[in-house]
Design goal:
The protein is mainly alpha-helical. The chain has a domain of 45 residues. It contains three helices and no strands. The chain is extended. The relative contact order is 0.08.
């Protein structure tokens, strides 16, 4: 997975052109995201409002897992 850095120029985000999406395998990002969540990395919160497109099958599995997990 190639890492991309973005330069902050101070311009209003509303005028910026949307960057093209990327397609990656889930296995490429699960360990990175798991470590980032565990360590409560600040950069992860920068993407809290970003939308992620997933397959319908994965959505079904995640929904079932969320609803079947033991409550705290």
């Amino acid at each position: 997975m190639r890492h991309r850095l973005r330069l902050f120029t101070g311009e209003d985000e509303g005028t910026a052109v949307a960057e093209p999406g990327m397609t990656v395998k889930l296995s490429e990002i699960t360990h990175i995201l798991a470590e980032a969540v565990q360590a409560d990395r600040a950069w992860l919160h920068d993407f809290d409002n970003d939308e992620v497109q997933i397959s319908a099958d994965l959505y079904d599995v995640l929904s079932a897992y969320w609803n079947l997990r033991p409550s705290a």
